């Protein structure tokens, strides 16, 4: 029986897993309010400052809803501590709004127990409480870590939701995975790697992915080249340095500097690369904006995207006399 068509078809196991992971958010520690590596269409956390600035919502809204977060000083007026009168009228505490505690000062000056609040435990309204806390320990003997709300399996795992700029709809997640698979099949050495893993008929698998991408409107080679994901020979390149990506770079771990080795490193030499950076209200995890880039190029671009990074690099080269 022929394998069912999906974006993983024919890909070496390590690369297939990498394509799968692109539909998930970045890692998050337990001392933050964010979920660790969950689907990009999960519940979104929106700072109240962004909400007040009329953040643009995605077409159709967020598939799994949203929660707006305000710190105590954004929620309360100081004299006396009562809810501010200028809070947006479309926000209701415990329904789509939670007060977020992240500092010892806020915890001590606006203690939730004073207002008979309980910690939130639901990602759908009603939220089951009025606040969430991630307050670190201090050197004081009387202080301890305060972690309340969305802390165990009963609430679906650590964290209340995902960063708003990481959001993508389920439809967009599927489309980008197919397009990234399309790009994988255009990396140097991918057919040889597939054969080494005894994957049957890799050329046929590649053709099927290309056909599917053509059907979905994901195979515009000119646009992929314009957006720095392919070169003029149709090869997958790093969006920053524009060097061809090798298939093995997607599967092999990055070399570690001597003396800085860690045993559990999972970072590969090439990884997911956002050509235009992720930012709130733009939702740049989308088709024709995702490529495969070198780990060190990704680190250089950080949250700037390609254009700002190139301008920064030009300044460095100019300041060092390498260009005029």
Report the β-strand fraction as a percent range: 5-15%
Structural class: alpha/beta
Roughly how much helix do the residues carry, as a percent range?
25-40%
Order of strands, main sheet, comes to: 7-6-5-2-1-8
| Number of strand elements | 10
The number of helical segments is 11
Q: Please, what is the average pLDDT? A: 92
The low-pLDDT segments are 256-265
Number of structural units classed as domains: 2
- Overall shape: it is elongated
Radius of gyration: 23 Å
Q: What profile does the largest beta sheet have?
A: 6 strands, mixed
Q: Write the H/E string, N to C.
A: HEHEHEEEHEEEHHHHHEEHH
Protein name: Restriction endonuclease
Organism: Nostoc cf. commune SO-36
InterPro entries: Restrct_endonuc_II_BstXI
Pfam families: RE_BstXI
Could you describe the 3D structure shown?
This protein is α/β, with parallel strands linked by helices and 324 residues long. The protein has 2 domains: 24-166, no CATH class; 169-319, no CATH class. The chain has 11 helices and 10 strands. It has helices spanning 13-21, 48-52, 72-75, 104-109, 170-184, 190-196, 202-216, 221-226, 247-251, 295-301, 305-319; strands at 44-47, 66-70, 76-78, 81-83, 97-101, 131-135, 146-148, 162-163, 270-274, 290-294. The relative contact order is 0.14. Residues 256-265 have low confidence and may be disordered. This is Restriction endonuclease. It comes from Nostoc cf. commune SO-36.
